[in-house]
Every structure is written in C-alpha cells, then in structure tokens.
Amino acid sequence: MSMQRLLPHDSGHKHVAGTADYIDDIPMPADGLHAYLGLAERAHARIVSIDLDAVSAAPGVVTVLMARDIPGHNDVSPVGRHDEPLFATDEV
C-alpha cells in the first residue's frame, strides 16, 4: 500500500488566515482593460480550427490571445503539476 503526500496550495495559509487577495480587492487602473473569454460550444471536442478574424476586427478589441501567445508554460496550476492549462490547445 502506498500513500500519496498532499501538496500544500500556494495561497492556502492566506485563505485560512483571511489575508488572501481576491480580484475584487485589486483596484482597476485608469487605463485598465477588460478580458472576455470565448467558450467552446461543445463540452468535449477536438479543436480543428479557430477563426478569430471577426473578433479581432470588432470595435474596441485591443488584442486576441490564444495558447500560442503564452510565453513559457500555458498552465495556471498552483502547485506545479502542469494540469491546468490557461487556454485550450488541442481539445476542450
């Protein structure tokens, strides 16, 4: 029988101590931008192609970001397991 050692979450102590920063605690800069996510139309599917020309040309759009635009690892997992991609790449 083997036991897996649990990895502590980076912000776990701050959460239980009441000192964690949440998005609503951070003031919006005067020149700040808003982000909008495009979501998949299917719960589980292969990504064959993505056409974002109309999105890029829409009024007010500054840029469109995809996984290929992320420098380094496209991952936001808190403990380095590399199992939480920020943007989908091959499948959703």
**H/E element string?**
HH
Radius of gyration: 18 Å
Question: Main beta sheet: strand number and arrangement?
Answer: none
CATH topology call of the domain at 33-92:
Aldehyde Oxidoreductase, domain 3
Would you identify the regions where 5 or more consecutive residues have pLDDT less than 50?
none
Straight-line N-to-C gap? 35 Å
Provide the structure class.
little secondary structure
Shape: flat
| Percent of residues in helices | 10-25%
- Name given to the CATH architecture of the domain at 33-92: Alpha-Beta Complex
What is the CATH class of the domain at 33-92? Alpha Beta
Mean pLDDT: 89
Continuous helix count: 2
Find the count of extended strands (DSSP E, 2+ residues): 0
Quote the beta fraction. under 5%
Instruction: Assign the CATH superfamily of the domain at 33-92.
Output: Aldehyde oxidase/xanthine dehydrogenase, a/b hammerhead
